[in-house]
Amino acid sequence: MKLTVFALALALAGTAFAGGFSLGFKEVGLPVYVDASYDAAEATIPLLRLGSALSPDFRIEALLGYGKSSIDVEDGIEGSASTFAIGGSGFYVIAAPSNSVFSIGGSLIYAKSSIEDGNSTSDLTILPIMRIDFAFPNVDQVAFFTEFGARYDKATTTHEEGGEDVDYSYSHFGTYNSPHILGGVYYSF
Questions:
Q1: What is the pLDDT of residue 171?
Q2: Does residue 11 fall inside a structural domain?
Q3: Which of 48, 96, 119, 171 sits in a 20 to 30 Å window from 158, CA-based?
């Protein structure tokens, strides 16, 4: 019985990802440090994205990123942070005219930043967004995209002061757009 269930799962797994896969890059600005005045320093983190079209109308992506940045830790004192980010996205296609795709969806990204002075920041970013993918005629496997929409960030930096851990939190709701006009690029296979 177990072997039959396993064989059935393998047989159906190919049809679940019948739309193909894509591999590409995108950048997202993430909070990497919250100071004593509860303001956040942001860094643009490059993310590797692996996407799959579960159906002609629905796509998912796994996001994985790492970046190093220079931040202003205190008045005039520079520090460096290394950030690891992981997340996912899902998009529902609302229109697909020739060589372009218009979709709505969102991304959820968790990031952990380590600052050289021993402080650390954890961040949760939620991006409900609209996305436009476009490709040049006869080059359908390479596509470019841009994203825009809303954004919510919740970041907490843990400082060690006087032998105790002190948390500085930052939350922000605002608008989101790709750091550059071109939000990312991917190759479909």
A1: 95
A2: no
A3: 48
Q: How far is the C-alpha of 11 from the C-alpha of 33, rounded, in Å?
A: 47
CATH code of 64's domain: 2.40.160.20
User: Quick one: CA torsion of 7, 11, 17, 20, rounded to 10 degrees?
Assistant: 120
For 1-32, letters b (16+ CB in 10 Å) and e give eeeeeeeeeeeeeeeeeebeebebebbbbbbb
pTM of the model: 0.84
Decide: 8 and 34 in contact? Cβ < 8 Å.
no
Residue 7 lies in a domain: no
Q: What are phi and psi of 179, to 5 degrees?
A: -55, -30
The total of structural domains in the chain comes to 1
Residue 84 pairs with which residues in a beta bridge?
66, 112
The pairing of strands 40-55 and 142-161 is unpaired
Domain residues for the domain of 153 are 19-188
Q: Please check whether residue 13 lies inside any domain of the structure.
A: no
User: Is residue 3 in a domain?
Assistant: no
SS3 (DSSP) at 53: strand
- Confidence band for 10, pLDDT divided at 50, 70 and 90: very low
